[in-house]
Design brief:
mainly alpha; elongated
Length: 598
Amino acid sequence: MSDAVTEIERLLEESKVIPYGPEESAEIERARAFADEHHDLPIEHQTFVPTEMTEPAQPQTAAEGLELAREAIIVSNDPDAALALLRGIDDLPEPELRPRLYRTVLTICRARDDRDGALEAVKARTEALRAQGLVQQADVEDELGLALYPPFNADEEAKLRAVLNRADLEAATRVEILVSLAGLLGSTEHPDEALELAREAVELAESADLDQLSGARYLQAQLLLQTGQPETAAEALDALLAVETERVWRIRVLDMRARLAGGLGQFDAGARLADELLDLLTTAGYRDGASAAAMLAAHLLAGGGQPDEAVNRAQVAVRHAELGDTEGLNGHRFWLGRFQLQSGQPDLAVEALGDAVAGYDRGEGEEAAGLEARYWLGIAASRAQDFRTSYQALVQAANGAEESAEEPLVELAIRSYLELGNLLLAVEDADAVDNYETALQLARKHERRELIAEALHQLGQAKTKFGDETGLADLDAAIAAGREAELDWFVADVTYTKARVLASLERVEEAVSHALTAADGYAAVGDEGSAAMAELLAGWVLAEAGRSDEAVGLYRTSLQRLPVGTPAHTGVSLEFGELLEKLGQATEAAKVRADVAE
């Protein structure tokens, strides 16, 4: 195939196999000697700018201490820290805040499995409610006790319903019971009825201007998600964000709304929400939460096609995790490496993924995560042309995943063998075939249709590259497997691969037929660029066979598929101009070249 055509294809799609030379092949050969041994990976550490973190505020009043304690238990899920904050309060807060104080104590006790303490907190809370003149609410909470508070007990449902059916309930009391019963039903696989109760709680709290409105709306959003109504859940959360709420509620709502935005494909909006969450948690001094928020922003930015920004947030997440010595550090390092790979920084990805691998190796019960990190380390190292590390990591990932015999690791084992095959094929090592065959055997054993098709495709290419024409049968099998799995683009792509192989074997009619079939397949799924390349291949084959007149129409239709001014359009135009020149159509050739110049 001509250099121009090859260059055009390179511009249109990223090659799956990087063409390495003899030096790289020798490096892989040396790596084989110790592929199954464990060695520390040769990694140079990148220096991160320290992440600023506001020191946690010291409460100046009982009210501030109470608010920080609520954040500690609700945001950080740290009952010990919350209890320490409450113990640091010298005086009781104002009488109107005491019901909230004892509810916070109750929540802490429940988190610590301290039933006796929780019962004492209920008693203190109801006394505080009576002191505020909320006699009915106090009586009801005395009657229901822990039935009002999570974790809910299904046996308490009848008790809650009986009280809810009373006609004389005041608004605040009714909302309290509605929220509790909705929470209970939502946790016992009755989300539809739970949602109706939550809606009633929201309407009542809103009409009566009650402090319980934020909690009721948050529960409603949770139940909307549970019942498969994400758009409506988003509206409920947006309503919460539109009004001024306590910091503890804004943190919770921002987190849920940002994640929901990602699920709805609203990546830019989600990233902005996650950044606001990150700022809020940083200001509040919650390092663990800030680390998680930064990584959430990174995922959303990556989903929105901004890998460079994703790397920035992932670096923030890693730094917070390092400084806070959090459990999520290895996972954050893993994703930092993945995002660096996406943004074209394979050298830095090798560093981050190597750190993740080392961290997982030191942990317990993290074999699967460690093997996946090794797999991606192998890919990153290959792109960074660190072939020794790539080969070692991929062999360890493939062997470890296959030997684990765990179903979730089957795909990882198959993909690791496929990547090993790609690495060896790139240096023209015939052992690539063995790795593709191993991947195919595993895919067939576990009935993974899409991976069977992919392995057959790679195997067929490898065999034909090394002169084994039985690879054509593997390509036919890949096409059949792709059709069975309804992988339309894949079928077109394998058909194109076969056309190229047939062209290299000078089987002109078959090559042209397959190329045109591939073009139709690509066009049917909207891939005009690949369709253009398939038509160009057919034209080139005809021209090389001395049938240039027949090739002209194919060059022309190929050009029509490509956007004017793109490198691909320019390359095909120049190729077409040469063809027309050889056919003696100098005027037409000049016109094609002039279109490029314009």
